[in-house]
Amino acid sequence: MTDRPDETATPRDTDELTDAVTELGATDTDRLETVQQRNESLEERLPGPEDLPRTQGSPGQG
After folding, report:
1. Which of 2, 24, 46, 48 could be bridged to 34 by S-S, CB 3.0 to 4.6 A?
2. Alpha helices in 1-62, H assignment, sequence order
C-alpha cells in the first residue's frame, strides 16, 4: 500500500490517451526515445543503497 493516490482509478477515454501519446512525439521512434529519456532521468534520481534509511529490528517485529 502506498501513500500516493491511485491515478488510474478513473478510466481515461480514448481521446485523452491519444493526446497523451501524441505529446510524447510525432513518430513511434520519437515516442520511444522520450520514454527512454524519462526512464533514465528517473533512474538517476533513485536513491542508492547507501542513501536508504536503515531500520532496526527484523521485518517480523512490529
Report:
1. 24
2. 14-22, 28-45
